[in-house]
Specification:
This protein is of the alpha/beta class. It folds into 2 domains: 4-254, NAD(P)-binding Rossmann-like Domain (Rossmann fold); 266-371, Rhodanese-like domain (Oxidized Rhodanese, domain 1). 36% of the residues lie in helices and 16% in strands. α4 (41-51) packs across α9 (195-212). The protein is elongated. The N and C termini lie far apart (83 Å).
Length: 372
């Protein structure tokens, strides 16, 4: 039931026949995850909070910078240097004290995306890079969650809803990520400050329609706005079974390689061998699964699987070189990105080529010994 305070606050919703008290209760019980608390995420969070969405999850690893203030309207000068997710959470709770927020100071990664999205009913993508968009799409396919997607570029924005009741997914519209040369540079591409407000508000509208089950959802349609001419167009697209079937288990993991990620420093197997033999040997962190570790691992390595990385963070030294490795270097890259962005590590090296490269080095060394 709604309280008297809620009835008064949401009175204009209750006057809508399509919403009413039953619909407002649906909003109160809804759980919506907003990935990205930047230009798009700010208006999404404001309007969903004001509408009475009961629980808002906020995912963002960035801190407020001066250049954000031109368009990210939840923040002001006093917030500089603070985590966006925390500031945004406080701001929307002040806007509507009747809602709850769940703050996740992290990026969405292959290692944590399952844990992030399975607790929510709807996922809203306010990210600013293609790897996250593909990751969220594939995760929503894996766990059958509708995805409200928004994107902006200079003076143009677009909105669509993917994976809704068997409808098309993001990959049905954009089957493959763009190459590094094709993708806009995250640091140098400008955007008109009001544009994310318009697009984010449209995303919020779609999220509310999904929760309430009203209206015609933007499934199979891409709504495009050109703010210079203020003309809009809607592009229809169909479900492609082969594209719609791609999920976290079947996707190419390189699709999630962040084009704007923090740097991951690498070390070769030969360099690592020299360091291990020196008096300043690095800490070795194996992020594979236990069965792989027990089959073979580097001497003295510590096992901490990628799947449970967050639980063992305190066992990783912060003031001594740490070399992270897996079978080929892919999972260790993901582990390092997460440790750097979520937990602030700055002493990590990725074993280039993983334990496969180490084994090749061993074979080469044996061959050289026989030849001698």
């Amino acid at each position: 039931m709604l309280t008297s305070e809620e009835r008064n606050r949401y009175r204009r919703h209750l006057q809508l026949p399509e919403v009413g008290e039953a619909g407002q209760l649906q909003l109160k019980n809804a759980r919506v995850l907003v990935v990205g608390a930047g230009g798009l995420g700010c208006p999404v969070l404001q309007y969903l909070a004001a509408a009475g969405v009961g629980t808002l999850g906020i995912v963002d690893a960035d801190k407020v910078e001066t250049s954000n203030l031109q368009r990210q309207i939840l923040y002001g000068p006093r917030d500089l240097g603070q985590f966006k997710a925390e500031v945004a959470g406080r701001a929307v709770r002040q806007l509507n004290p009747l809602i709850r927020t769940e703050v996740h100071i992290c990026r969405a990664t292959l290692g944590n995306v399952r844990e992030l999205i399975t607790k929510y009913d709807v996922v809203v993508d306010g990210s600013d890079n293609f790897p996250t968009r593909y990751l969220l799409n594939d995760a929503c396919v894996s766990f059958n969650k509708p995805l409200v997607s928004g994107a902006i570029y200079k003076y143009e924005g677009q909105v669509s809803v993917f994976n809704y009741q068997g409808g098309p997914t993001y990959r049905c519209l954009f089957p493959q990520p763009p190459s590094g040369r094709e993708a806009p540079n995250c640091d140098t591409t400008g955007v008109l400050g009001v544009l994310p407000g318009l697009i984010g508000t449209a995303q919020a509208a779609e999220a509310l329609k999904l929760v309430l089950g009203i209206g015609e959802v933007l499934s199979g349609r891409l709504w495009v706005l050109d703010v210079l001419s203020f003309q809009t167009r809607t592009v229809k697209f169909a479900r492609r079974p082969e594209s719609a079937a791609i999920n976290l288990q079947t996707a190419n993991p390189t699709d999630y390689a962040d084009l704007c990620s923090v740097g991951v420093n690498a070390i070769s197997a030969a360099e690592l061998q020299l360091q291990i033999e020196s008096e300043h040997a690095p800490f070795l962190l194996d992020v594979r699964e236990p069965d792989e570790f027990h089959t073979k691992h580097l001497p003295g390595a510590t096992l901490l699987p990628l799947s449970s990385l967050g639980k063992g963070v305190n066992s990783i030294p912060r003031h001594h070189p740490v070399v992270v490795y897996c079978r080929s270097g892919r999972r260790s890259t993901q582990a390092i990105e997460r440790l750097q962005t979520e937990f602030g590590f700055a002493n990590l090296l990725n074993l280039d080529g993983g334990i496969e490269a180490w084994e090749e080095l061993e074979v080469t060394s044996l061959s050289s010994g026989v030849a001698e």
